[in-house]
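Quick one, T. Sequence first:
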Amino acid sequence: TALGWEMVPTMVLAVILGILGGFALGIVPLRKAGFPWARAFKTVLIAEGLSIAVMETAQVLTEIYTPGVMEAGLTDSLFWMGMGLAMVAGFVAAFPVNYWLIGRGITHKH
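Structure tokens:
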């Protein structure tokens, strides 16, 4: 939004940054626990990849379909309310996925 880009490039950048952030949050503790890079990446991809994808999808759809959020600027309260709503939607959408993954024993252990 701060860059003044159109909606599609803004959303692509947001998804890329969301995926990178999600992977970083998973990889950093594994690396600190002594996992090599390749094993840490594979573990996060398997254990959290689906969850991250579902969360990002829910967030993007919420931002797109909440009236005015995509047109609002960084100083508009509507922008920040929309981002907060998108975070909640992402959490709600990813929760059952995480519950299912954990129920299947798909977690990263360190």
